[in-house]
Amino acid sequence: MSFLLPKLSSKKAVDQAIKSTAEKVLVLRFGRDEDPVCLQLDDILSKTSSDLSKMAAIYLVDVDQTPVYTHYFDISYIPSTVFFFNGQHMKVDYGSPDHTKFVGSFKTKQDFIDLIEVIYRGAMRGKLIVQSPIDPKNIPKYDLLYQDI
Amino acid sequence: MSLADELLADLEEAAEEEEGGSYGEEEEEPAIEDVQEETQLDLSGDSVKSIAKLWDSKMFAEIMMKIEEYISKQAKASEDIIHKFIRDKYSKRFPELESLVPNALDYIRTVKELGNSLDKCKNNENLQQILTNATIMVVSVTASTTQGQQLSEEELERLEEACDMALELNASKHRIYEYVESRMSFIAPNLSIIIGASTAAKIMGVAGGLTNLSKMPACNIMLLGAQRKTLSGFSSTSVLPHTGYIYHSDIVQSLPPDLRRKAARLVAAKCTLAARVDSFHESTEGKVGYELKDEIERKFDKWQEPPPVKQVKPLPAPLDGQRKKRGGRRYRKMKERLGLTEIRKQANRMSFGEIEEDAYQEDLGFSLGHLGKSGSGRVRQTQVNEATKARISKTLQRTLQKQSVVYGGKSTIRDRSSGTASSVAFTPLQGLEIVNPQAAEKKVAEANQKYFSSMAEFLKVKGEKSGITST
């Protein structure tokens, strides 16, 4: 499944992607291809990518190859999904401690589609943070790892 | 002595001879028609010789007339007449056979086989060739309980003669068909290009000639040669209904089964056009026929091409279009319904220095505010704005009413009088009287409606006739 989605392997590539996607939600999945949860998430991403092709562009980023961004986004759990719109980082309140990224995999395809739609609508209205439509039961729970505090 | 050979010979001799002969022989044609009419009236005659007259004169006519006219005058009429004759004669012996074997040809053959003795039904090889096993079974069963009587020798002889004649007629009809087939491309080239010579010959034979065929509408031509409903309880599912010669022709049968009916309709329509062209002897090389056939082929191909591949479309971007923002009196009125009303405003207000009931704010937070307070400095109560009232539809109203309906009447709900009260009373006059307790109330309500309601009109009260003079 991960071979169906485009990959970004360097900082430059990620920069390029962020700058070039216009009027579409940019979905960056940070993780490793072999990890089982990543595999699940990749499966959902690849199956919905054609349906969402008008709303979103999905890319896979390997955490080991882009340490800069891994550090910048404070990625401690994988997979983590970060959303952008027109170069602007979109925050989503999932009911979890971290609004800047989505940690873990989605339960169903429909959850992901709904989330993308809400992000899109919010972004078109000029909002920078939106409320997630996913049922809190389906959102993976985790504890924040506080580093250097 | 074969008729076909005779015809061939005649036609091969010379066309000129025919033309020359036809002038002199035109008087023959009305004579032959008369003969035919005569035979139709002459069925009471016991002898088959009356029909034989037609036979002889027919042979004569064949030599003179062209093949088209021959088919139109000959085949159907005489065969039906003979069949009727045989049927009438044999009904004395075996009346039920007619309904069991509706097909004329099969009936005649069966009659020939059985003759006088109906026991021949069982284990008869010849019969098995004529009829199906099921039919034979039914026939033999009916034969054992038939009401008919044995026929005399004379009658039997006549029947035999008639049967033989009918069978020979049939055989000759077949031979004529074969001949016609071979000549079909000369007679009706366009028609035979579309459906083939044999089918064209058949439908022409059934229709009774090319002219008759050209006068038929396409829906009739489609059903030429269709088998009639077979009665006597046989299943008619094996025989497809409404399928004529055209349905069973090669061009239609070459398609998959579900397309065949549609194809039969199309081919019948084009055949009609071709027949009409042929009846005027236009397009003798078959140009129109080839064009029509080409059209038919193209349509067949179109029907059989596979359906287009379904495109999977991505979901559309969730952009709601610009909402219609219109102004004007109408939209202002609509907005009024939804806006902030006076009552709400008063409810939102709180007076200074007074502690509300809900000080700890444990409830929802809606309070009556100024509305609930007396002495707020206003004489009038805030008016209810009709425009902002909540409305429900009639159906919703009805369902709510039905839900809230309380069962019970005068003694249980209204008066709550003693439980022993009832609407049944014993009166000295009638004995038992049942009173509707609501009847009296209805009367009162009616009177009120008439006189005291705010919607009542002016009523004219008739004064007394004695003159009232005003002072």
TrEMBL record, chain A:
UniProt keyword annotation of Membrane present: no
Gene3D superfamilies per UniProt: Glutaredoxin (3.40.30.10)
Family annotation (SMART domains): DIM1
Keywords linked to the UniProt accession: Cell cycle, mRNA processing, mRNA splicing, Nucleus
Pfam families: DIM1
Gene Ontology biological-process annotations: mRNA splicing, via spliceosome
Location of the protein in the cell: Nucleus
TM spans (from-to): none
GO CC list: cytosol; nucleoplasm; spliceosomal complex; U4/U6 x U5 tri-snRNP complex; U5 snRNP
InterPro entries for the chain: Dim1 (IPR004123), Thioredoxin-like_sf (IPR036249)
Family to which the UniProt record says this protein belongs: Belongs to the DIM1 family.
Function: Essential role in pre-mRNA splicing. Required in cell cycle progression for S/G(2) transition. Plays role in pre-mRNA splicing.
Assembly with partners or alone: Homodimer. Interacts with the U5-102 kDa protein subunit of the spliceosome.
PANTHER family recorded: THIOREDOXIN-LIKE PROTEIN 4B, THIOREDOXIN-LIKE PROTEN 4A, 4B
UniProt protein name: Thioredoxin-like protein
Taxonomy of the source species: Eukaryota, Metazoa, Chordata, Craniata, Vertebrata
Automatic annotation (TrEMBL), chain B:
Subcellular location: Nucleus, Cajal body
Domain Nop residues, every copy: 187-305
PROSITE patterns listed in its UniProt record: NOP
Listed transmembrane segments: none
PANTHER family noted in UniProt: PRE-MRNA SPLICING FACTOR PRP31 (PTHR13904), U4_U6 SMALL NUCLEAR RIBONUCLEOPROTEIN PRP31 (PTHR13904:SF0)
Any single Gene Ontology cellular-component annotation: Cajal body
Any one GO BP annotation for this protein: spliceosomal tri-snRNP complex assembly
Protein's UniProt name: U4/U6 small nuclear ribonucleoprotein Prp31
Keywords: mRNA processing, mRNA splicing, Nucleus, Ribonucleoprotein, RNA-binding, Spliceosome
Main location (coarse class): nucleus
Quaternary structure and partners: Identified in the spliceosome B complex. Component of the U4/U6-U5 tri-snRNP complex composed of the U4, U6 and U5 snRNAs and at least PRPF3, PRPF4, PRPF6, PRPF8, PRPF31, SNRNP200, TXNL4A, SNRNP40, DDX23, CD2BP2, PPIH, SNU13, EFTUD2, SART1 and USP39. Interacts with a complex formed by SNU13 and U4 snRNA, but not with SNU13 or U4 snRNA alone. The complex formed by SNU13 and PRPF31 also binds U4atac snRNA, a characteristic component of specific, less abundant spliceosomal complexes. Interacts with PRPF6/U5 snRNP-associated 102 kDa protein.
Family: Belongs to the PRP31 family.
